[in-house]
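HUMAN: Mind sharing a backbone?

ASSISTANT:
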Amino acid sequence: MLKILQNRFSIEHESVNPHYVPLKRVNIEAYIRSFAADVIIQQVFHNDEECHIEAVYCFPIEEQASIYKFVARVDDREIVAQLKEKNEAQREYNDALRHGHGAYLLEQDEKSQDNFIVNVGALPSGKECHISISYVSELDLVKDGSTIRFVIPTTIAPRYNSNVGSISSPANTTSKYVQQSPYTIEFCCRIENNNVARVSSPSHPIQIDLNQSDVYVIEFAQENTHLDRDIIIDIELVENHSNTILAVESGAIMASFTPTNEECQRAVNNTTVANEFIFVVDCRGSMEDEDKIGL
């Protein structure tokens, strides 16, 4: 869903189309490893008006996701966002607009914790702005623990009621709600194929590239896919998959322990289930030599 705002830079231009949508393309790339997903959302805005505009795009992200990067690109300039207190960030955004400078703001919607708002301010006439948002998310197990489900929400309904209120901008501009978006979405998801039996989507027709040695590459099977429903990818695990899954990176490790069906049934029946997890971490630095083999 999209809100387009006519800001103070365009008030004197009566020819501005109130239904004009500067968001031209949305591209989503995802990499799934075990129960974790790394997602990059790219949004391309273009100003076809004869004056500066401010565009505001509201979109949902999974509640358990954590945004770790926000980048704006205009011409050959790349602006990497800094995390700041909300009021301070809004003041700096307003100051930049007052001086006619480009400004970009990403913040959580106060009305809904799983909605985020991107403000692209003072976008000059004829210019294009590329917004890139990166986040990580933990995935859920469904279907009695046999399937990992990856969801990318693309619509804010029923998260947001277009008939009540509007998306506010720190610049205090007026908004026009666009019910049907003219832009389409491109989607590419890479899934590590270890312990994976099957990949499917109950939401969209997909095509799967099986030619890669260690990943499945999933894309939409149809062109011109619109953002009219959430993207759902189901990753069915092999029957005898391990209930303990690890993801190891430099400086970090994630472990997922999935109970068996028998353990879940005992918990449902209020039967006492004793679990003990012992973590052994070697902090001596004795394995730093490249000639040694880590356990």
Remarks:
- Residues 67 and 115 are 12 Å apart (CA to CA).
- The chain has one domain: 2-237.
- Confidence is low (pLDDT under 50) at residues 1-16, 157-165, 169-175.
